[in-house]
Amino acid sequence: MRNFLTLLSAAIVVITGAAKADAGDKRLRVVIIDGQNNHNWRATTPVMKKTLLDSGRYTVDVSTNLKTGDKAPEGWQSVAFPPDLSKYDVIVSNYNGASWPKEFNEQLHKSLFEQKIGLVIVHAANNAFGGWKEYNLMIGMGWRGNKGGDRLILDDKGQPVRIPSGQGEGSGHRYTGKFSVIIRDDKHPITKGMPLEWLHNNDELYDNMRGPIENVHMLATAYSKGTKAHEPMIWTVGYGKGRVFHTPMGHDANSMYCVGFQATLNRGTEWAATGAVTLPLPATFPNADKISIAK
After folding, report:
1. Domains in the chain and their CATH numbers?
2. What is d(CA 200, CA 180) in angstroms, rounded to the nearest whole number?
3. What confidence tens digit (pLDDT) does each residue in 55-96 have?
4. Which in 11, 43, 111, 253 has the greatest CB count within 10 A?
């Protein structure tokens, strides 16, 4: 009898392990690209990685492209750069630095165009590659000079206003602090169920985003006290058959501890990879009057 129970226990362990393996096979495969940035990628990448892993929806690798002579932190785990895109469902870019290899760039926009991979752009990743035409189309709009493309804002009635390239100021963050995120499409899978207004933790509020603004779908804005305008804060881009999720939130680790940012990142990443969202909003999601911090 004892031998039978031992064998039964062992079988349960094997079956349970197999079930976990099957569940693991269904997780989406994410690669975060970092290694160069005018922001502290050494601090922000770990927050994003933990956020994605804690959701249970993803496996996460990091591919770090260091400057010559630079070193990653002790114990930093990274796959080779450039990563093999065939191994992943979605890229999360935390990168703003030297150009990537031409072959990798071509592989990226071809894979995205054919919907073989999704793309997520966070904060200063939209500062990168101003001279790369396809990248500008992929991200929709980013940190550029006033001749770097059109500017898109919403007026006080929530109607889009497009300001031509060359008019007005170039990109900046003329307000930094807490600000309200205003949902402009509450039916989209990423923002569905979010309060129509929620308070975000201290962050740089990017303004005057510039670009080609093709196939951009605005999901949320934030009113900048610096520009007196409703600036884009969460949007998607259609690139061929591919999907891009873009948020200029996430200046530093403290801003990324905002539950609103983390939920937006998780849901945006899932949507970029699959076109759908299964991840629920956390019970601690912020509201119009109170920020919510997760550490």
Report:
1. 28-274 (3.40.50.880)
2. 6
3. 999 999 999 999 999 999 999 999 999 999 999 999 999 999
4. 111
